[in-house]
Amino acid sequence: MNRKRKVTLPGKFDNLAKINELVVEAAKEAGFNASAIYAVELAVDEACTNIIEHAYEGEDKGDIQCCCEISDRALTITLHDHGRPFDPTKVPMPNVKVCLKKVKTGGAGLYLMRKLMDDVHFEFSREKGNLLTLVKCKSAQSCIAD
To answer: Could you tell me which residues are beta bridge partners of residue 121?
Structure first.
């Protein structure tokens, strides 16, 4: 069983609700509980916000394509943009042991995505743009090797 859902929308904060709606529908269809659905929704919202703010450096400067693929083992979400390249290895790990108000800007969203999802993978090419893949497994057993 492999099912896909896809939408491409201008990178605007108003469109995040439409992307979240697609992601939530896919997570429900995949059979996730409310807690896992919320985790997926939050990770995708954070990723899309980062695309708008950092890759495009503002609203309505490019599109965000969101594709959700449901398999027997996982929900895989890919976010594609043509903004500035992003190298996650250059983002410092935030200090998560301090009060949230004291966390410095940068890195907290990436940390959150990695905590909420089972796999987070970034790719960039000048021709194809940025591709972020987020995977949420249906069971505690690893599904990443597929």
So the answer is: 133
Dihedral (CA of 85, 129, 27, 145) sign? negative
Residue 81: per-residue pLDDT:
97
pTM over 0.70: yes
- What tokens were used for 61? 């400067």
User: Where exactly are the structural domains of the chain?
Assistant: 3-137
Q: What is the pLDDT of residue 100?
A: 54
**How far is residue 108's CA from residue 8's CA, in Å, rounded to a whole number?**
26
pLDDT-flagged residues of the chain (< 50)? 146
Which residue has tokens 């089972």?
118
Nearest to 107 by CA among 117, 119, 96, 93: 93
Tokens representing residue 69 in the block: 């693929």
CATH number of 3-137: 3.30.565.10
CA 28/CA 43 separation, integer angstroms: 16
